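Example: Nuclease.
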Amino acid sequence: MTKTVTIYHTNDIHSGFATWPRIVSYIKRHRHPLMRYVDLGDHADRANPLTEATYGKGNIELLNEAGVDFAVPGNNEGVTFSKQMLHEMYEHASFQVLAANLIDQQTGTYPNWVKPYWVDEMEGGIRIGYIGYTASMIHFYEQLGWDVAFSIDRLRQLAQQVAAKADALILLSHLGLPRDEQIAAEIAEIDVIIGAHTHHVLPHGKRISGKLIAQAGKHGQYLGKLSLEFAEGSHEFLSAEEELLDPRNFDEDPGARMLLQSLQTKAQAALSAPAAVLTRKLEVKWFEHSAGPQALCDELSAWCGAELGMLNAGVLLESLPEGPVTYGDLHRICPHPINPCIVELTGAELIETIERAQTDDIVQLQLKGFGFRGKVLGTMVYTGIDVKPEGIFVCGKPIVDEHIYRLATLDMYTFGFLFPKIAEAKKKTYLLPEFLRDILLDMLKKWH
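Written out as structure tokens, the predicted fold is:
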């Protein structure tokens, strides 16, 4: 005889609520004593007006109403909100937040709404241990006063400690699939990993060293269903199976729909507040020089205290007419959770970066991810840099290959494939918690 524990899971919703009332309906209808619901983080995304206007508290209300049992903060919660905002968000949570690597740098301890792990004793005495881990994006989190370092040895020690108290041990991970695979291969005490961050769709999970890793895509495209089998009486953990359910096949939950609509209405009202008044039009063009992106690049450079700056015109989604500008307008034309940063490059590295920026591969790129929430990157705009047929000039002088230049730019360029020399730069300074639209607001207040 066996007993089955069912754990439903979501990850990387990113405030994409198209299927949310359907997911909540299914969870509520299938609630029973041997069932739990966990969220793996990045439920919030400030590109959505609801999240922006409520500073993430609306997301917590939605998770509370859905009956989530345990949740892990993702990087979208951890690095797009200030420490105070994060405190105010999770203090309203009716669920337990788990994050063993979220340490307040000032106190050296966990915030009062976080625990590193939890042992959940279910009906009949089955005990399941949960350990939470958020994304180990050290350079971002440390700017906000958090220590999120990851250590395989520290996790192993914690897993040994928790496994001794539980019949099965689950890691709730926002570390991403590659790291989850490493953990599955190296830590024997962890039985199952429910993952996030890399948006992988794993229809029946992935097995590494006999351990099941689950992940359910992004934006609520799937609801994960994890089934754990235990021996009756001894509670010995026997097996784990995973499947992904399509929420489009579920009915909507009226309560979740009403709450979502109420939060959206409140958000619209909050974002209708005036932010600035323009005495002339702010023109934005993606594929040719225009005043809006240039002024924003100049403001970014000044804000960062750098003579040089660069950003793509596509970070501004549309022009603004003369007259009043609301916070909703700001969010609409610059919705990205993108932060300013300063990068140091040699002249040779800067030349290579500028040359790549001029290619159609970049200008026409309809980028998805890295915080970009626009349509297309568009032409590159510069401050203090002139690209002429006879060469590249910096502050009016020919660029020098060996010289070190400080460049004000956007954090999204430090990730991945966009600009390899920026990504590889040894000295990068991330400036948080300000978003690009905060700098845009400063600029608009001076726009005459």
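The chain has two domains: 2-267, 274-444.
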